[in-house]
Amino acid sequence: MARGRFISRSISTSEKVTHILPEILTRHSLNPAWGVLLYTWLHPHADDFGRMDGSAFWIKHNIFPAFDLTIDTVDHLLDAISEAGLTERYEIDGKKYIQIIDFERHQSGLNKRTESHFPEIPRNSRKFPLEVEEEVEEEVEEKSMGGDKKQRPPAPRILFEIYQKENQKLASVKEFTKERERKCRIRLSTDNFIENFTNAVKKAQSTPFLCGGNARGWRADFDWFIANDTNIIKVLEGRYSNGKVQEKTLDELKAEWKKRDAEAKK
After folding, report:
1. Domain residue spans in the chain?
2. What is the pLDDT of residues 162-187, one digit of tens each?
3. β-strands 51-53, 140-144: how paired?
4. In terms of DSSP bridges, do strands 95-100 and 140-144 run parallel, antiparallel, or are they unpaired?
5. Which CATH fold topology does 1-125 show?
6. How far apart are CA 167 and CA 251, in angstroms?
7. How many of the other CB atoms lie within 10 Å of CB of 171?
């Protein structure tokens, strides 16, 4: 693993880093600066595949050892970063891991990497180094006494078409890019994702926060819905329906953070 990592200057203009992530953190009454800093500092601690230990305990004591943040707060920060589509937190055999999304796009020298010490995201077979995923139409074969019957899984584009058909108030989407196709293929491997995705897109349009009713005017978009397996579940569970935190001004939030810091130092 390299001793250092490249941090692209595009991070300062990334919508996910400067807009979506702070909005999510603000909604959970967390200081956006901590989330942005944590996301940035994850990079030098990741292996050559953008993976690392995903437990809040490890992150706290290896990345934030000098700061007075609780393990629970770090855990919430990590969840928010994943919710923004910047990382993917996953669990295998009871152990948590983190995969930085699009890690290889801004790193050099990855052609020399061999094998990660951390497992891949379940159901996500990625090719390294820097190989473009081939379009593979997997087939589920059902054998019966009468012969073999093959059933193709849904094409990734179905999620794109559902979003375009159902969307009236959310951010628009025009192109079905290779990256979106890749993420859709991953999401479709989750049970009942099409049904949950459709219902989430419909419900989001009756949720003011997801339609721009927030301090920054941010609206949920197609990429946000397919970023991970959890965003649509949170929509269906009504996690974005509470407007109390969303209505707080930046000055009110700063006062709240200052009060919490003062209480923590007592």
Report:
1. 1-125, 154-266
2. 999 999 999 999 999 988 998 898 88
3. unpaired
4. unpaired
5. Arc Repressor Mutant, subunit A (1.10.10)
6. 34
7. 16
Are 121 and 88 a contacting pair, CB within 8 Å? yes
Integer Cα distance of 156 and 49 in angstroms: 25
**Chain segment 126-156, per-residue pLDDT in tens:** 433 333 333 333 433 444 444 444 456 688 8
Q: Which long-range contacts (CB under 8 A, 24 or more apart) does 250-258 make?
A: 250/215, 253/26, 253/29, 256/29, 257/31
For residue 40, what pLDDT is reported?
A: 92
3-state SS string over 92-147?
Answer: ECCEEEEEECCHHHHCCCHHHCCCCCCCCCCCCCCCCCCCCCCCCCCCEEEEECCE
In Å, what is the CA distance from 157 to each residue of 91, 178, 183, 211, 264? 27, 10, 10, 23, 49
Give the residue among 253, 1, 242 at the shortest CA–CA distance from 114: 1
202's enclosing H/E stretch is helix 193-204
Q: Is the sign of the CA dihedral 113, 115, 116, 117 positive or negative? A: negative
Q: Is the dihedral of CA 129, 122, 183, 188 positive or negative?
A: positive
